[in-house]
Design goal:
It is built from three helices and two strands, in the order αβαβα. It has one domain. The protein is mainly α. Strands 1-2 form a two-stranded antiparallel sheet. The protein is elongated, with a radius of gyration of 19 Å. The chain is 49% helix and 7% strand. Helix 1 runs antiparallel to helix 3.
Length: 137
Amino acid sequence: MPGIHQFDTTMQLLHKVLDLRQKNQEIIGSNIANAETPGYSTQTFSFEEQLRNALSGNDLRPVATQQGHIPLASAELDQVTGIVTTTPDTTEIGDENSVSVDQEMINLSQNQILYEAAVTMLNKKLSLVKYAVNGGA
């Protein structure tokens, strides 16, 4: 979304979450597609800890000293890319494929629900901006 930096931290965060959730969806889809591929190792994508650290700002960050101040986003938010980890099969049974289709379907559903929640929050936020632009009408 070009121009997202015009808006507040919440909108920037939701934009980043949507991008990361989409990447997670692609990785889960790849796992499901390779469920029958001999020797394929399950991949997992995690970004929550990086996102949490970017938002908490491990170093100095601007502080609003009065209620009317505009909140500023951490520059680290743009640097959150997530981490892909590979889990090889350790059972040594069968074709050494570590994909559990049942678990991947659960992951897929959970990721989809969280993606849709972020879309809903972003839509609500945009509705508030539209309301303000239209003068409260």
